[in-house]
Amino acid sequence: MDLDARVHLLKTIADATRLRILGLLAEEPRSGRQLAEALGLGAPTISHHMARLVEVGIVRVTPDGTRRLYALNAGLLDAAAAPAATATVAPIADPDHARHVRIFFDGPRLRSIPAKRKARVSVLLELLRRFEPGRRYAEAEVNALLREAHDDVAFLRRELVDYRYLAREGGVYWVNPDVPDRDANEAQEVPAGEAAWLGQLVRGVVAG
Amino acid sequence: MDLDARVHLLKTIADATRLRILGLLAEEPRSGRQLAEALGLGAPTISHHMARLVEVGIVRVTPDGTRRLYALNAGLLDAAAAPAATATVAPIADPDHARHVRIFFDGPRLRSIPAKRKARVSVLLELLRRFEPGRRYAEAEVNALLREAHDDVAFLRRELVDYRYLAREGGVYWVNPDVPDRDANEAQEVPAGEAAWLGQLVRGVVAG
DNA sequence: GTTAAACTTCGATGAACATCGAAGGAGTGA
DNA sequence: TCACTCCTTCGATGTTCATCGAAGTTTAAC
Questions:
Q1: Which residues of B59-77 are buried (b: 16+ CB within 10 A; e: fewer)?
Q2: Domain that holds residue A67
Q3: Binary contact (A208, B6; C-beta < 8 A)
Q4: Where in the numbering of this chain does the HTH arsR-type domain appear (chains A, B) (predicted)?
Q5: CB of B206 within 8 A of CB of B23?
Q6: Does A7 touch chain B (CB under 8 A)?
C-alpha cells in the first residue's frame, strides 16, 4: 500500500457522513434506503458515499431483490482483532501482475476478461483476494462478490474453480488453502499488518 | 472526542503532504525550512500544514532562535505502544468547563485570560492537558507550550504553579501527579483508548 | 538601529467533493 | 406489459482547502 493509496483510504474515512454510515453498519447490515432515512440524506448522496466505501473495501455489498445490502467488511476487523494471524491470501509474485491489473481493472470493475492465460491468471488471483480465506461461501455469495467485477459471474466462477483457486463441494465454495500453479509463489509472510491499523482505526473511530 | 473532532483529526492526517511530513518528523525533529526543502514546497505551504498538525496535537513545536522546531508528539505514540497505560491527565468534571473553554479559546489560542477564578481554573486545566504527565520540562519548554495559547506566558506559568497544577523544582517543571482543587474530580479512568487508535494509526500510516 | 533569516498572514487560484433534483436503469410482482 | 421500488448517473451548486507569490512579523546578530 503506497502513499497515494493510504491517503485515498484516509480521505474516504475522513468524512462525517461516512463515519456515521460505518457506525450504523457496525451494528448490522443495512440497505441504501435505510441509511438514507437514518441519516436524513437523499438517495443520490448515499449512493455516492457507498460507492466510495465499497471501492476502498471497508464495506461489502450484496444485491437483495431491488435493494442492495451493505455490510462492514468483517474480514478487515477480524484481522485487526487477531493482529498475529496471517489472514490474507499469499501475495502474487508474477512480475507482470501489477501491469495486468492496471490494464484490466477499472477500480473494482473488470474492463474485460483477458483472453491470454497469463493475464487471466492475474485477474483471477486478484479477484480471489476478495474472498476471505477460511470462510465458506454460498454460490449466491460468490456470484455477488464476482459481480462487483464483471457481469459474467458464471464464467469467472467456473474459471476460479477450474484453476483450483476456489474449492467447491456441493453448493459451497471456499478459498483453496494451498493454491496451486501460482507462478514463482514463495508464500511469504504477510501478517495482517496493513489490515491491522485500518481495522484498529475503523473500530476506534466507529466506537467513538 | 465527538464526531466532528474525529472527522477533523482524520481530515488533518488524510493529506499526502502531511503524511510525508509526519514521516520525516518520525525520524527526527525538523525546522520548517528543512521540511520545505525536503518536500520541495514553499514556506507558506509548510506553515499552513504545520499549523494544522499542531492544532490537532500530533506535532509539537518549540521556538529555536529564528527557527521553529517541529517534533512528533511522542506522548501520543507512547500511549499507543502501551495501550493499557493511562497516560492522560484526569478529565475535568466542572460542568461549566466546556462553556468556559468555548468562550476563552479560539482554537489553540486564548482570546484573553479570564478574570474570574472559576473560568481561569478551567482555562488553566485545559492548558495543563497540553503537558505530558511524567515528563519533565525546562522552563523554556513550558514557555513554548504556553505561548501557543497566549503571549503572557509568565503569568500563565505562575498561575499554573500557584494552583499546584504544575510542580516545580529548580528550573524544572512537571505535571503534579495528584492535582488538587479540581472541583468534583473523581479521577475516572481514561485509558489511553482515544490516543491508542490515533497513535496506532499514525504509526501504521507513517511506517507504511 | 539595521540587516538577514525563518516563519506567518493575506489574497488569489484551482481542484476536489458533498449534496441535491431530475432523469435513467434494474429487479419484482401483478 | 405495466407499475412500483430501489438505486445509480448526470449536471449543477456551493464549500473546503492545498498551493503559491507578495507582504508583514519576529528573532538574532552586528
A1: bbbbeeeeebbbebbebbb
A2: 3-77+193-207
A3: yes
A4: 1-92
A5: yes
A6: yes
CATH of the domain at B145: 1.10.10.10
* C1'-nearest nucleotide to the CA of A18: C18
A82 assigned to some structural domain: no
Q: Nearest-CA neighbor of A125 among A59, A175, A193?
A: A175
The verdict on A123 and A167 lying in the same domain is yes
Instruction: Write down the pLDDT at residue B178.
Output: 60
DSSP designation for B107: T
The alpha-carbon gap from B140 to the nearest alpha carbon of chain A, in Å, equals: 35
- B residues 19-48 lying closer than 8 A (beta carbon) to A: 19-20
Low-confidence ranges of chain A (pLDDT < 50): 78-91, 180-193
Same domain, B67 and B101: no
Q: Do residue A158 and residue A108 come from a single domain?
A: yes
**Contact residues, chain B, for A197 at CB < 8 Å:** 200-201, 203-205
Question: Model confidence over A137-195: pLDDT tens digits?
Answer: 777 778 888 887 887 788 788 878 777 778 776 566 778 766 544 432 222 223 344 55
Q: So what's the pLDDT on residue B153?
A: 81
Residue B82 included in any domain: no
Q: Looking at residue B75, what is its pLDDT?
A: 57
The backbone region for B15, taken as left when phi is positive above 0, alpha when psi lies in -120 to 50, beta otherwise, is beta
**Does residue B186 form part of some domain?**
no
Count of domains in chain A? 2
| Residue B21 in grid coordinates | 511530513
**pLDDT tens figures, B5-56:** 889 989 999 999 999 999 898 888 899 999 999 999 999 999 999 999 998 8
B204 CB neighbours strand D below 7 A = no
